[in-house]
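Suppose you are handed a protein chain with no further information: no name, no annotation, nothing but its sequence. What can you learn? This example shows the usual starting point.
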Amino acid sequence: MDTMRWLEEGCLELLDQTALPLFVTYIKCYDHNSVGDAIKRLAVRGAPAIGAAAAYGLALGAKRLDCTDKNQFMLKVGRIAEELAATRPTAVNLQWALSRMTDTLLSSGETAPSAIKSLLLAEAHKIYQQDIDANRLIGHYGQKLIPQDARILTHCNAGALATAGYGTALGVVTAAWEAGKNISVYADETRPLLQGARLTTWEMLQLGIPVTLITDNMAGYLMAQKKVDLVIVGADRITANGDTANKIGTYGLAVMAHYHHLPFYVAAPMSTIDTSLSTGKEIPIEERGQSEVTFLAGQQIAPEGVNVWNPAFDVTPHELVTAIVTEKGILYPEYSKSILGAVKSN
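A reasonable first move is to predict its three-dimensional structure. Written in structure tokens, the prediction is:
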């Protein structure tokens, strides 16, 4: 199942993940506004997928500009990039992809907007394919951490649906399965939007990997019952010291894994690492609307007028992370050194 695909008619199709698992539908995006809307409302989600979609969104926005002056064209493209960057603040892949696109524009020796438009689309295609390639390498390295007969707990969705393809945390699981390891998965439901229940379980069933769904508040007891061998999650931003922002609830899992002496792994591409931030305290945490908590599947489940706090992410301190799996290999503590080394070789 493609998370996104570029059509020859000149539009981007995005799998509408808000409709899964009940319906498989695609959204056709002909301009950057429709891509931005899809990112905002989580029709496309997951840090790598958001980055790739935004790159295509910028290419679509540029494609629709009707101006022949290069300076005016570049100014308008910059404004489109700013609009797309504002859709979600925590996932650094979004800004990374847009910066890469604008760098391509600025470094181009082309003067004709028509030629620059082609370059931007070509760069978006590269970002898309390189993400798939990176994820397969993450799977290649990460599956070495997965023992035979492992029972794996994961949170939210870091599979093919969260990327251009194959997945990060679930890419590691998939690679272990493809290597012939007899593994099974526990998936947290991941309130409030149920990405684990709706998406992770769906992906695992599609691949034939044994999966058991649990509610978020069952994870600690599951560990206490010695039914888990390791935890692996994705990431939306990793700082220079290894602090990791991921879907809300990840921090709690890391604390419980530490208490129960279980490995806690993070899998993410190098584009998720943000060395401009020293620690997780500097990561901007997106807060989303109240209705995501007070409503479920369109039905109100909380009293009218109740106060709601709805941060979409939390930050796991690096001390709780056993290893970080990237396309450059497996990074171990001391992360300030191993991350810097990986970045320099990137």
